[in-house]
Write a structure and sequence with these properties.
Blueprint lengths: L10 H33 L1 H37 L3 H36 L4 H16 L1 H16 L3 H25 L3 H23 L17 H74 L3 H28 L1 H9 L3 H15 L2 H16 L3 H27 L1 H25 L1 H4 L3
Helix pairs in contact: 1-2, 1-6, 1-7, 1-8, 2-3, 2-4, 2-5, 2-8, 3-4, 3-5, 4-7, 5-6, 5-7, 5-8, 6-7, 8-9, 8-10, 8-11, 8-12, 8-13, 9-11, 9-12, 10-11, 11-14, 12-13, 12-14, 13-14
């Protein structure tokens, strides 16, 4: 039986409803992982480092689509909870148009200035050329990728999370097959990896686009619209935390790369890249859960169903804490086997990567709390609190840690910095949830 946003959610129902979005985020994170695997093993260490060096820039640009998706979901699901289905459809169509136009305005200038951006990041010589070759191809597909990140949220709001999963799996499989063909079999190198990712992003972005042109009795579909300045403002303020989180994470990634270049050279960037691939997949579980449960929270908040809101918060806290413990254990246990997949050809690099991954995995105990807490306040329409959590979690705490701890612990200080940052973010999130309990009635 189909699960509706208005239902009462038990643990089983929450997991059933959010599982497609969790799997969606995992498959989305696999894009870069697959590229990294094939480039590292079939092209070389320098091209692999180039992908990791330029990737934060690409993630900053794509964050716009994620902001519209998460922030817009809160606005649209709240309108649905208030019984304004026609308005919800108009808002959704308008926000889709905003993403299309915004993606083009971001992609075009970046294609022309990519060489200068890569140079500013510290790339030179062969590393610089690889950054430019990979980045320009990926930027051509930026509109499709932004649509994909937006539709991942709105397909859940449209009560079609399984369709979102099917589309994302299809895009992921496309990426894997094309990487095998264009990098593993036909020696197209880093350009082949970029092309594989770009095509898969087109699959993920355009298939849902055509779905929403379909039957008019669907929960969400495209309808005539006008410019809604207030809706755009609410969407941006609600989703600014996710934008801030993505931008901050990317900026922090750049800082990590600069620190690693100083301490460990190109090997340090390669090791960090492998750790990030594992981190992307593990953290995607928390992000997917938060995206999946957010429309439910927004709906019951709009319907003023406080008992269900309290139930959702309590159950989510238990699930996030349990998930963190399990992922930490997996990360520690599989640190060496996972490292060998990417850098098993270099013994010294393998040791550095496996050791760093063991330390880094401790952060999974805490990171789910900050991710869910930020998403929770976004769903409640409180973009300010959500942004505060994201900003401190991904910028203030991490930047402070990565600047200070390496002075005391050397290379290990870089790996430990994320653990300290996530621990501090968990404490701050818990305090904010308690502080705002009377306003929203969830405790």
């Amino acid at each position: 039986m189909a699960i509706r946003l208005s239902d009462h959610f038990t643990y089983r129902r929450i997991l059933r409803f959010t599982l497609p979005s969790i799997l969606m985020m995992i498959f989305t994170s696999i894009y870069g992982v697959v590229d990294g695997f094939f480039v590292s093993n079939f092209v070389g260490k320098t091209p692999f480092a180039a992908i990791n060096l330029i990737m934060p820039v690409l993630m900053i640009l794509s964050a716009f689509g994620f902001m519209i998706g998460t922030g817009g979901t809160a606005v649209v699901s709240k309108a649905m909870g208030e019984g304004r289905e026609a308005d919800a459809k108009r808002y959704f169509t308008f926000l889709t148009a905003v993403v299309v136009v915004g993606s083009l305005l971001l992609a075009v200038p970046c294609i022309f200035f990519l060489r200068s951006i890569s140079t500013w990041l510290g790339a030179e010589g062969e590393l610089l050329e690889y950054c430019v070759s990979y980045g320009r191809i990926i930027l051509l597909a930026l509109p499709a990728y932004m649509l994909q990140t937006m539709f991942q949220s709105f397909l859940i709001t449209a009560e079609r999370p399984k369709l979102g999963l099917v589309v994302t799996v299809g895009a992921g499989v496309t990426n894997m097959v094309l990487d095998l063909l264009l990098v593993g079999i036909f020696p197209l190198g880093i350009e082949g990896a970029a092309l594989a990712t770009a095509v898969s992003q087109c699959v993920g972005g355009f298939v849902p686009f055509f779905y929403f042109f379909g039957k008019k009795n669907r929960v969400l579909h495209f309808v005539p619209f006008r410019f809604y300045g207030r809706v755009l403002w609410q969407t941006c303020t609600n989703g600014v935390s996710e934008l801030m989180s993505n931008i901050s994470m990317s900026l922090v990634g750049m800082l990590y790369n600069l620190r690693l270049l100083d301490i460990a050279g190109e090997d340090g960037i390669a090791a960090y890249g492998v750790i990030m691939y594992v981190n992307f997949i593990f953290v995607a579980i928390f992000i997917g859960y938060s995206i999946g449960v957010a429309p439910v929270i927004g709906y019951h908040y709009g319907a003023e169903n406080r008992p269900e809101l309290k139930s959702l918060l309590c159950k989510s806290t238990v699930l996030v804490a349990a998930g963190g413990a399990v992922l930490t254990a997996i990360g520690v246990a599989l640190a060496r086997p996972l490292s060998m997949i990417f850098v098993g050809y270099d013994a010294a690099l393998l040791e550095m990567t496996a050791h760093g991954m063991v330390i880094y995995s401790l952060s999974f105990l805490f990171c789910g709390c900050g991710i869910f807490g930020s998403s929770f306040f976004t769903a409640l329409g409180n973009g300010v609190i959500s942004a505060v959590i994201s900003f401190f979690r991904t910028m203030v705490f991490q930047v402070g840690s990565v600047l200070l701890l390496p002075l005391l612990l050397g290379l290990d200080g870089i790996w430990f910095s994320i653990c300290v940052a996530e621990g501090l973010a968990t404490l701050m999130t818990a305090w904010l949830v308690v502080f705002k309990r009377h306003k929203y009635g969830y405790l």
